[in-house]
Amino acid sequence: MVRKVVQEVWSGAAAEREVTAESAYIQRRQWLQLAGLGVGAGVAALASGRASALTRSPQAMPISNLPSVSSAVAGARATDKVAPLKDATTYNNFYEFGTDKSDPYENAHTLITSPWTVRVEGLVGKPRTFDIDQLLKLAPIEERIYRLRCVEGWSMVIPWLGYSLSKVLADVQPLSSAKYVQFLTLADAKTMPGLRYGGLDWPYSEGLRMDEAMHPLTMLTVGMYGKTLPNQSGAPVRVMVPWKYGFKSAKSIVTIRLTDKQPKTAWHEAAPQEYGFYSNVNPDVNHPRWSQATERRLGDGGLFAKRLDTKLFNGYAEQVAQMYAGMDLRRNF
Ligand SMILES: Nc1nc2c(c(=O)[nH]1)N[C@H]1C(S)=C(S)[C@@H](COP(=O)(O)O)O[C@H]1N2
Ligand SMILES: [Mo]
Prior knowledge:
Blueprint: H1 2-10, H2 16-19, H3 22-35, H4 39-56, E1 68-70, H5 85-90, H6 103-107, E2 117-122, E3 128-131, H7 132-138, E4 141-149, E5 154-164, H8 166-172, E6 180-185, E7 205-209, H9 210-214, E8 219-224, E9 227-228, E10 238-240, E11 253-259, H10 266-270, E12 294-297, E13 306-309, H11 317-320
Parallel strand pairs: 1-4, 2-11, 5-12
Antiparallel strand pairs: 2-3, 4-5, 5-8, 6-7, 6-11, 8-9, 8-10, 12-13
Bound molecules: ligand MTE and molybdenum atom (MO).
Residues 92-96, 148, 150, 185, 204, 233, 246-247, 249-252 line the site of ligand MTE.
């Protein structure tokens, strides 16, 4: 408990309570009741979690044996201050492992990331099941420094490793009838304690319009900070869609499905009036319960995170705005 408070102050996160989804707190209480953890067990879990957390990921291997180049994709190298690895790996949203920001760090060591396959299917000419080694070799691994803006009002700058998702999509030959791409992520009750409570339908689902999925900035992500992804960051493979709120960037993906209809997505289904399908970062369209005009930039500024003005499309307007020409961004939020 003390550690949680300390961590929140340290990361400048105390204000998070104001904006975190109400359901999270209800669920948190249910979880505590369900778990019925004695103090001893709690402390033991904490201790084991701590010992291994940052270096824990046996999966966090150097990825430098692979050709890793700095991305040439326009907009792929933010010059903002990169967050320390510690911030990016101890302050996470990954509800499959719990709803507190420190839960993924404490719980995600149970995730089994090998073997792992990603099935790419649906409206494609050549459906294919990739294992991780095949994905690592499909295209040169690039480092991209992206801003990540969570719908809750915090942001971080993280150096990711991967390549444009379009490489994977091209490989399976999308049919012209494919209009959307859905991402389905692992839902394994044995290793994911968060599945025990409701609020979201599992598996976690996200989706993009086909042109968004094909945009060069949309990244199939296999690593961060020069190594493979730690479990809490969505190992072994996730997407990063830097101009959209963070929940669009699904973690630990097992299925990529091309469809002709807008897919059901987890947060949109849970609260459609609060979380739109598009969820492009937009300072002028507030969440019904809080302003989106500013954000707390974690990992820059020590104890007290900076507050910055939020930018339209998270600062990627030059690259992505044309995809939304003629659309009413208030209606299609
Ligand atoms: N499978 C899955 N993916 C997810 C989430 C989740 O709960 N489950 N949370 C999302 C949210 S709300 C955010 S802000 C980002 C956080 O990514 P990070 O923890 O690596 O910063 O992951 C997104 N991807
Ligand atoms: Mo988020």
